[in-house]
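How a chain folds remains the central question behind the approach discussed here. This step matters because it turns folding into a mapping between discrete strings. The sequence in question and its structure tokens are set out directly beneath this paragraph.
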Amino acid sequence: MSSDSLPSPVPANTGRTTRLFFLIITAYFAGQVILRLLLGGALETDEAEMLLMTPGFRWGYGPQLPLYNWIQTGLFSIFGETLFALSLLKNMLLWATYALLFLGLRAYVSARVAALTALSLFLIPDIAWEAERATTHSNMLLATISASFAAFLWALKTRNWRYWALFGLAMGLGGIAKYNFWAIPTGLTLAALTLAPLRSALLSPRILISPVLALAIVAGPYLWMANNPDLALSSVGKMAISEQVSPLVPEGVPLYFQGLFILLLLPMLVSALMWLASRHRPMQSGTREISTLFLRAGAILAIIGLAIVWLADVGHVTPRWLLPIVIPIVIGVFLRLTPRLSPLAMRGYLGALVLFALLVCTGLTLDRYKDNARRDLDFAPLAQAIEEMALPEDTLIVTDFYIGGNLARLRPDWTIRSDLPASARSETAVHILLISRALQTDAQLQRLATQVGWPHAAQAIYDSGEQIALPFHHGDRSQPLRLLYGAME
């Protein structure tokens, strides 16, 4: 067989299994779109961000890389700036995460093993729960990770230049999806170099097409970042990197291990139970090589991640930042387990997935109506209060993503900017309204005008601030807001 020919994957009852797998994931994520529309309510912070950060197609929009914004802008042009357009993109990406991983694993394993392994991602809380409830750009990260896995595995299997080109495309898209994506090609490459059967594929000149294509895709956005560092780096503070002499163990190190524990706890618990139920069944040698690739990639990335957190003295680590480390580990473990599952273990595993899916749907419903829920806040009184202030039509409104996006949803013709540094530096309006959920003093709110780069911040005169309280649709609590109006002298 020539290196350019396409070998047949491991033979199995592929047709029925493949159709069932795609039917399940399609039904589930279509159901999630419907559930989000039925629950309605206010937008979550990341959803609200999309209404403020999608002013057409641009090389950059702020601290987040632009790929998600580009696709969201396209869906907005088709469906309008609606909850449907927001939920559709989020669930399309989650669907693609499972679908592309399945297709990639088919290069080496049967449809049954590929399906069961792909579904193991659902056991990672930040994928099953947080990606559905709140996140946006992280969903794009997940989809591009699976795309990279798929292209890389088929390139290793076939050594066909077309798959190396697809790997370059996936790398380029991942490179403008989320910064921590770059861990994936790094881990895959280093892990493959440690495996003799795979090493020769990486030493082929054909692999050079991958970085060339990736560089061509990321060039525009990365040049924009270099020319706009104040916007591109405006969220670096989330990592709380210390500039002082640090202790022997930085604060981020225990948070790093805590994040890994949170993400891996459920997958490892389920896999342990599966192993106990199938421990007497023989090991399958067909998946050992590919599972070792993923396990070594995860281990290598875990060591690199710890070194970065430790040496950079990172003070804050969020679990979802560690997804590029956790995902290969989970895939590797389940590639080892799923080929040897007993009928009892198989039923238990599938039952656990169904139960977890029901819990996610139930949790999303409860999260919508719980006391002080973000989605339960009523923003109509805020829009009404601003209209009663009778401000000039060109007044610039500056606030956080959550308030700003929900306000833009009600009043799409208003000029609203986020509270990110430099977000208002190109605005020419001479009137400004500052809104904050924190009950700040007038002086503190005035500094916000300088922080966002409003050109007239130094010359502006401000009125006395006022406080309003937004009600929740359910419950007796309210959300206090502080408003401050200013105009150029």
Notes: Confidence is low (pLDDT under 50) at residues 1-12. Residues 252-278 form the longest helix (27 residues). The CA atoms of residues 371 and 475 lie 6 Å apart. The beta strands are 396-398, 415-417, 431-436, 460-462, 466-471, 478-488.
